[in-house]
Amino acid sequence: DDINLNIKDIEIVKHTTKGGKILRWAIITTQSGFAVVGTPSATINAENDNEEVGEEVAINNSKSQMWALMGYNLSEEIYKNKLKKV
Questions:
Q1: Per residue in 8-26, pLDDT tens?
Q2: In the 8-state DSSP scheme, what is residue 33?
Q3: Dihedral (C-alpha) 53, 58, 61, 63: value to the nearest 10 degrees?
């Protein structure tokens, strides 16, 4: 829930390679304005492309990156609070 509450905007960037592969990246802008992007979704063949599935995979990949960043931030906050109590 914390991840979804921290999302201000999601942009999908689609690219078709010269070989016909379709890649999609999800650029997530957080409430603080920081941009997060994960690995792209990819199709093997443009004829099999499913836009909805590709976007969902790209968004989940970017959310995974947010999870790591938010976990790091939480760990830092906990550490700083422990230092203040010492």
A1: 999 999 999 999 999 999 9
A2: S
A3: -100
How many Cα atoms are found within 13 Å in the side-chain-facing hemisphere of 15? 10
Q: For 69-77, what is the mean pLDDT? A: 91
Q: Which amino acid is at 60?
A: N
Pairing label, strands 7-16, 22-30: antiparallel
- Report the alpha-carbon distance of residue 15 to residue 42 in Å, rounded: 10
User: For residue 65, what are the contacts with CB-CB under 8 A and spacing of at least 6?
Assistant: 36, 37, 38
User: What is this structure's pTM?
Assistant: 0.85
**Cβ(27)–Cβ(36) below 8 Å:** yes
pLDDT of residue 26: 98
Task: Look at the block and give the residue holding tokens 């201000």.
Answer: 8
